[in-house]
Design brief:
Belongs to the proteasome subunit p27 family. The structure is a single chain. About 50% of the residues lie in helices and about 10% in strands. It is an alpha+beta fold and about 200 residues long. It has two domains: about 10-120; about 125-190, PDZ domain (Pdz3 Domain, Roll), CATH 2.30.42. Strands 1, 2, 3, 4 and 5 form a five-stranded antiparallel beta sheet that branches. A hairpin with a 2-residue loop joins strand 2 and strand 3. Helix 1 runs antiparallel to helix 2. The protein is rod-shaped.
């Protein structure tokens, strides 16, 4: 049998080696059968003695015996080899499935990690003045802010960051993402002058 690769794991080249060996054995079996065919077509079971019990003189008895013996041995080898090929393919297939399951689990874990990092809030809405731009946009008290325009958990330092974004976005809609009752909610907020203080309220 082909020796398994490093760590005792069957590789594709091991399987290819086994298949090559199987092809060789099949070629040898075929050659032996052709030899029997050449000996007056005696197969595996025809008698090698004549009616009087003497070795047949029309065939090479020794050659026929050798060919028959080789066929039996080669067929046993072939059977054992086919079993090895089957087991090796089974191992490869099982490993492929295992790898697929591992890849899927890793992708899932990665998605969860990204989700968690996406969903990290850096500020919380403590008050919303009725009639203000914030109120009109649908922002609510206790909304946790995940993204405010270009500001997110990765670049937020202090509330001045938000104030800067608001001043630069007067009259233009800002994309704001909040977590509300455990769900992500997108809000379109347009900072503008109104009856109260500031551009948001």
């Amino acid at each position: 049998m082909a020796d398994p690769g490093p760590g005792g794991l069957v590789t594709v080249s091991d399987v290819q080696q086994l298949v090559r060996r199987k092809d060789e054995i099949e070629a040898q079996i075929k050659a032996c059968y052709e030899l029997l065919e050449g000996q007056k077509g005696v197969g595996m079971n025809e008698p090698l003695v004549d009616a009087q019990g003497f070795p047949r003189s029309d065939i090479d008895v020794y050659q026929v015996r050798t060919a028959r013996h080789n066929i039996i041995c080669l067929q046993n080898d072939h059977k054992a080899l086919m079993k090895q090929v089957e087991e090796a393919l089974h191992q490869l297939h099982a490993r492929e499935k295992e790898k697929q399951a591992r890849d899927e689990a890793e992708a899932l874990a990665e998605a969860m990690r990204q989700n968690q990092s996406l969903a990290q809030a850096f500020a919380k809405v403590s008050a919303v003045t009725p009639g203000s731009p914030a109120s009109v946009s649908g922002l609510q008290v206790d909304d946790e802010i995940v993204e405010f325009g270009s500001v997110n958990i990765n670049n937020f330092q202090n509330l001045q960051n938000i104030a800067t974004v608001v001043q630069h976005s007067e009259g233009r809609p800002l994309s704001v993402t909040v977590i509300r009752s455990g769900r992500r909610v997108h809000v379109g907020l347009t900072p503008k002058r109104w009856a109260g203080k500031g551009l948001l309220g």
